[in-house]
Amino acid sequence: MRLDLTTATWRTSSHSNGAGTQCVEVAALGAGVAARDSKDRAGGVLGFTGAEWASFVDDVKGGVYDLA
Length: 68
Description:
Residues 8-61 form the DUF397 domain. InterPro entries: DUF397 (IPR007278). It comes from Actinomadura fibrosa. It holds the Pfam family DUF397. This is DUF397 domain-containing protein. The protein contains one helix and four strands. Helices cover 18% and strands 26% of the residues. It has a four-stranded antiparallel β-sheet. By secondary structure, the chain is an alpha+beta fold. The chain starts with 10 loop residues before the first strand and ends in a 7-residue tail after the last helix. Strand 3 and strand 4 form a beta hairpin. The chain has one domain (5-61).
């Protein structure tokens, strides 16, 4: 999927530290979502379809990726 990042409005997780440097940032872009590392904003960006992102969020909420 090709995402147009020129119009991206990036959001930082509310679970981030106050400086927003320990998290992932996301931007809704038309039919998709972009995600990037807040510590390396000039680095790579991952693109997801809306369905892929929704599935990922459901998994996170369900504890699929919990490390403890």
